[in-house]
Amino acid sequence: MDSLPNTKRQKFVELLNSQQNIVFGLSEDSLELSSSQIPLFRSQPMEDSNFASKGHGKQKTKAEAKSASEFQSMWSIKKEDMAMKERLSKMKLLDSLIAKPEPLHEYEEALKKKLISNFLS
């Protein structure tokens, strides 16, 4: 009774292997293609097609150029904003170090001197 499921399993595995060979072109009677005969996918333009010869997609449209210009201006504004926020953060840190009533640790004193020299230069 144990050998019956094993035989079915072997036949099933053989069936799967034979189907895999057919699906992936590994059967003995499959065609051999040279590299020039490999079919192209639809997303690959052929050299002699009208689409490739007219140069579509190579030039930027006015809308793309405008959006790129808007992006550049927004990015420059964002960079300035980030620099101002960083400067403000450093000023707050320096203010808290100056306002500290007890003596500062060595690293706090070094940071305070560094921040003061950065703001004065």
From TrEMBL:
Disordered: annotated span: 44-67
Protein name: No apical meristem-associated C-terminal domain-containing protein
Source organism per UniProt: Brassica carinata (Ethiopian mustard)
